[in-house]
């Protein structure tokens, strides 16, 4: 076939139309279409098609070979999720500390790292102390970092990592407690002031020193932080006290209260929330006890809400998680709902567990 008549020589207008058609294709079909020619391949790796595409590195033994293929890719950036290998039993954490499992960090990863903008560790991966610092230190363009249930020594990790200047989103889910208060994680030394989204999960009272460091982080990033999620983080009342006077422009706030001590303080926590004057458009609250008056107070305070979710928690079939369902409180609630002209999504109910 004459080269002048190949798909690769189509006019720009036709390629733009193909790009539009690609928007309607599922990922597996778009991958097939990308093999037609170089022009179609370039269309398939446009940022709008890669935004939700995450490459999963599931079996650590062959990661080196897989990443070696991606070093030849013309993609403008990469998003990786590192999963554990198959477990021997459901309760056994995966031990991936063997040297052979992580040699790719020192060989192949530096070639890819400048293009990596999203990185996620997930599912109880157990790693040596020096692995994560080595990986993060050569990934300067990282915008999203998620560390979920990773078994490692956070002190050594975070003390060895330079500040991630490009980081915009951080999610940490702690899978264990620390034995000594001196194991301070020093998150403040890693997170840039321009962090926009922070999500922290599963912090108990035993991690009090980490919570204190977390408060410093929120204060440090307060001028840029737009989304804050505190899920099953104890000492919620103390954290709200530290944030109430911060001049934050939070657009989203997600608070899940599980600890019985914090649940008993829900009225005080709600009172502190009402004093913040954050320009919230998305508010999600979860606890074992809410009152309908709390919901009305929230609606009367945050007038720009577009999404509101308030869920109590109950073991029974009754609405035990949300109390105070008198005629007066429900009438007030109805008026408060009607006053929110921007509201698009509303949930007031009970989570069963």
TrEMBL record:
Name of the protein this chain belongs to: F-box domain-containing protein
SUPFAM superfamilies per record: F-box domain, RNI-like
InterPro entries: F-box-like_dom_sf, LRR_dom_sf
């Amino acid at each position: 076939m004459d080269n002048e008549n190949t798909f690769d020589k189509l006019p720009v207008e036709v390629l733009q139309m193909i790009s539009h058609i690609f928007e309607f294709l599922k990922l597996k079909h778009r991958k097939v279409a990308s093999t037609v020619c170089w022009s179609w391949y370039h269309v398939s790796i446009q940022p709008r098609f890669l935004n939700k595409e995450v490459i999963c590195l599931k079996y650590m033994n062959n990661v080196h070979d897989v990443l070696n293929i991606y070093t030849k890719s013309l993609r403008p950036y990469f998003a990786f999720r590192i999963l554990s290998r198959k477990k021997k039993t459901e309760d056994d954490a995966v031990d991936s500390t063997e040297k052979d499992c992580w040699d790719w960090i020192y060989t192949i990863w530096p070639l890819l790292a400048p293009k990596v903008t999203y990185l996620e560790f997930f599912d109880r991966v157990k790693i040596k102390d020096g692995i994560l610092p080595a990986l993060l230190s050569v990934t300067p363009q990282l915008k999203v970092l998620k560390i979920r249930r990773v078994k490692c020594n956070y002190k050594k990790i975070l003390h060895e990592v330079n500040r991630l200047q490009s980081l915009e989103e951080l999610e940490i889910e702690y899978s264990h407690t620390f034995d000594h208060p001196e194991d301070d994680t020093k998150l403040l030394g890693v997170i840039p002031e321009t962090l926009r989204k922070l999500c922290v999960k599963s912090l108990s009272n035993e991690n009090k020193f980490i919570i204190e460091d977390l408060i410093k982080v929120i204060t440090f990033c307060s001028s840029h932080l737009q989304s804050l999620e505190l899920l099953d983080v104890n000492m919620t009342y103390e954290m709200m006290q530290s944030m109430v006077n911060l001049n934050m422009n939070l657009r989203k706030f997600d608070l899940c209260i599980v600890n019985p001590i914090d649940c008993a303080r829900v009225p005080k926590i709600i009172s502190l929330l009402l004093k913040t004057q954050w320009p919230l458009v998305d508010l999600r609250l979860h606890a074992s006890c809410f009152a309908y008056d709390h919901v009305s107070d929230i609606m009367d305070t945050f007038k720009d809400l577009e999404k509101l979710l308030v869920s109590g928690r109950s073991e029974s079939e009754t609405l035990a998680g949300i109390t105070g369902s008198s005629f007066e409180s429900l009438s007030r609630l109805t008026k408060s709902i009607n006053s929110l002209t921007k509201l698009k999504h509303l949930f007031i109910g009970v989570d069963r567990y």
